[in-house]
Structures
1.
Amino acid sequence: GNSVTQMEGPVTLSEEAFLTINCTYTATGYPSLFWYVQYPGEGLQLLLKATKADDKGSNKGFEATYRKETTSFHLEKGSVQVSDSAVYFCALSTGSARQLTFGSGTQLTVLP
Amino acid sequence: GAGVSQTPSNKVTEKGKYVELRCDPISGHTALYWYRQSLGQGPEFLIYFQGTGAADDSGLPNDRFFAVRPEGSVSTLKIQRTERGDSAVYLCASSLAGDGRNEQFFGPGTRLTVL
């Protein structure tokens, strides 16, 4: 079956620090990979996605590269802001299982 | 509004009662998903509709849970004989097509508390 393993949190960083949140997956078939973000008091929203190997998804300064050889999709940002404080979820879907399979989420807090 | 809406936003019920949770997807989205999110966890899949039919209900935990989408738009998740373990946030999402690559747009969720 499909599964996502995500770096445990919480993660606390100072503003302008470098962020990495690790995500690895197992999947039957060829997955599409996603990062979703949940800001305080808001619903889940898509941050970025990649649908094939070596693709890089990017949005709002965040990036993640689809690495088939290591089955990973690590989220990175060069300089975090206080407004990036949220819970980040790595997820995948496949053609045969179109629902999203989520990791357990990583709580990020950025301090000024 | 143009987003996915869910009602009610909060539902408190007593053990053993029946509840219905409603989801209004984005207009024109043929695929609709229900997920359940427990505290500190990622959402877990319950059921997926393509149009009016349940294409995959493998995530429903038992036969107390049932969902319908009679006209291919609004969906209702029904829980019979609620138990305290059913307490969670129930999320609905829709996407333009259910091919696994399209973005799923999530509603704000219904927080269900079973006393």
2.
Amino acid sequence: GAGVSQSPSNKVTEKGKDVELRCDPISGHTALYWYRQSLGQGLEFLIYFQGNSAPDKSGLPSDRFSAERTGGSVSTLTIQRTQQEDSAVYLCASSLAQGGGYTFGSGTRLTVV
Amino acid sequence: RKEVEQDPGPFNVPEGATVAFNCTYSNSASQSFFWYRQDCRKEPKLLMSVYSSGNEDGRFTAQLNRASQYISLLIRDSKLSDSATYLCVVRVSGGYQKVTFGIGTKLQVIP
């Protein structure tokens, strides 16, 4: 696609439920990143994909968080047993492996109630 | 020490003023540098890359000082529409492109 697409744009879920967030990067971008941003805070790195592999998942805050990427394209971030502190905007970005800037999606605003 | 450090501000400047932000980085292997702009409740968007020789885009000038490990962004003739948070981004290229974002510097241009 022309840009990075994320869905859903907003998600309200009850504490304890699982959620799946989707990112569809720009076609041809092999690098994909997930970040989250709490209100008024900076970007918190979660995980990086190069193709389908994740050389750096050091930012995942707990084992309730997991992510996968298939076909070198779409990525899904899954949060199990959501907690209120998971409430944030989850941003996905993609880039060409050989450099250049990143393009961000418009994010998924997750609210855990 | 954080990998990328920025003064969070806010910087409150009058319209027409010139304002400069610095960003320091700790990894000497850093190779690519960018400035991103983030408007309130929006995603970050690339403002400009930063090249070794320095580069200019209209009212914006970016510079890199490898010896002192910092990059800067200069905004001339500030407009109200420049009000945003400016994020410094550093990437270590190679087999694994580790990317680090600064916390951002908030700029408020006032009439």
3.
Amino acid sequence: EPEVTQTPSHQVTQMGQEVILRCVPISNHLYFYWYRQILGQKVEFLVSFYNNEISEKSEIFDDQFSVERPDGSNFTLKIRSTKLEDSAMYFCASSATSVTGELFFGEGSRLTVL
Amino acid sequence: QKEVEQNSGPLSVPEGAIASLNCTYSDRGSQSFFWYRQYSGKSPELIMSIYSNGDKEDGRFTAQLNKASQYVSLLIRDSQPSDSATYLCAVNPPGRRALTFGSGTRLQVQP
């Protein structure tokens, strides 16, 4: 069964360092998302991406965040200068259609900022 | 602030019983509603979507939507211990790609 894959599964970094989280969406999907979940809290939307551009972003997705689809398969989230409060599980998701809520999530990348 | 509210639980039911999970939302214009299941330490997994008032059944799961009351529910019949998880209600506000998630209801099915 096709799945969304994410790497790394866990990354520990020092505050102020740059982090890149990688995702390979399901191959025929066209819509890509990043969500995050701070431990014990709600799943929160960060950004959606379609046709090689950001289609929507949340207030969380400020200038320290960026997304990129560098080739035909990978979808990356970059955090330029990590803060302690960026510690969370980051989920990549993809969707085949414009039905925006029917998402397939990856297993997540746990980011720990020290 | 558009919100999705759920009782955090835990909701404890015996094996074989019906589990009833509820969710309310504040944006009256919302049109799309989803239930995701999240096992501890895992990612959300879509269980049900519902777009029209009324009931939608899929196997042991029934989603119910009442837009006038801004209320969505999920019924799980013949609950199994493997159903023990956190159930997330998610709403798609009108004109937006983002999903707004509730904080989830933790369900415990006792063998």
